[in-house]
Target: D-3-phosphoglycerate dehydrogenase
Amino acid sequence: MYKVIVTDAISETGLHALLSNSNFEVDQATGLAPADLIEKIKDYDALIVRSQTQVTREVIQAADHLKVIARAGVGVDNIDIDAATEKGVIVINAPAGNTIAATEHTMAMMLSLARNIPQAYGSLTAGRWDRKLYKGVELYQKTLGVVGMGRIGTEVAKRAKGFEMNILGYDPFLTEDRAKKMGIIKASLDEIAAQADFITVHTPLTAETRGLIDADYLAKTKKGVRLINCARGGIIDEQALVDAVNSGHVAGAAIDVFEHEPPENTGLTQNPSIIVTPHLGASTAEAQEKVAQSVSEEIVGIFETGSVQHA
Ligand code: NAD
Ligand code: MLT
Model:
C-alpha cells in the first residue's frame, strides 16, 4: 500500500486514478503549518501540491519514504528541486492541463484592464454612476509584447491576433520561422519596451527572470503602457511597477500572481490603476480536473510500472 498526501485543494474527480486503486491510500490535509507538514510527511510515499504548499529542504529531508512530489500545475518554484534530487525524490508536474485556463485568464485581465471593468463594477455597486471616469482603450491595432512564448504565451498570442493586435514575441527559443508561421514578430525585450502598448509575461520564475521587468526596464517602456502578469510574482518587480504606475508612466497593470501570496504590498493591491486577482489563472473546473488527473495517473504509473513522463 502506497500512502499519498494531498496538501493543497485539488479536484477530487481528477484524483480518481488514485482513489479507485486499492494499492493507494490518499489523505487530504490542506492548510498545514510548515512544522505540521514536516511531522506528517514522514509516513508518505507521494506528496501532491499546487502552489500554496512550500516543499522546502526541511520537508524533503524529513520525508523518509517519499518517492514522488507532484505539482498539480506548471510552476515548480515552490519545490526545492535540489533537495529533492539529492534525496532521489522524483518531481513531476502537469505542464499542459491548465494552459487554456491561464490563457483565458490573461485575456480576461487584458480586457478588464483596457476597459476598467473591475473599477467600474466597484463604483456602480457602491452606488455611483461614473461613466466619464472609466473611459477605456481598445485592443484593436495596439501592439502586444508577449514575454515567454511557451504554451501559455503562444495561446495568448493566438487569441490576441483575433482582436487584431500586432504581436511582438520574445523568447530565447522563438525562431523567425515559428514567429512567421504564427503571424507575429520575433522581437527583443528592448524592442517590446519601445513599441508595446500592452506587455504580458509568461516565463517561469527563475534566477534569470526574477525582476526581468524592473525599474530600468519600465523606464524604457512607452508612456501609457499596460502590463499583465499571470505567470509568477517577481517577474515584474512589484515596487518598481507601483512606482511607475504612481508616476503616471505606466497606465495600469493586471496582476494575478505575487512575490508573496497572499500579497503584502498594498501599494499594488489597493491601487486604483492596478487590477488584481488571487492567483486564479488555473482556477477553472476543467483545468483543475485535468491537472489532478495528470498527476494521479502519473503517480500510479511511477509506483506500478516505473514510468515517468513529466519529471
Ligand atoms: P512553458 O514552459 O510552456 O513556457 C515558458 C516559456 O518561457 C518557454 O518558452 C521558455 O523558453 C520561456 N523563457 C524562459 N526564460 C525566459 C526568459 N528569460 N525570457 C523570455 N522567455 C523565457 O510554461 P507555460 O505553461 O507557458 O507557463 C508560463 C508561466 O505561467 C509559468 O511561470 C507558470 O508557472 C505560470 N502559470 C501560472 C498560472 C496561474 O495560475 N496564474 C497558471 C499556469 C501557469
Ligand atoms: C501553475 O503554475 O500551474 C499555476 O500557478 C497554477 C496553480 O497554482 O495551480
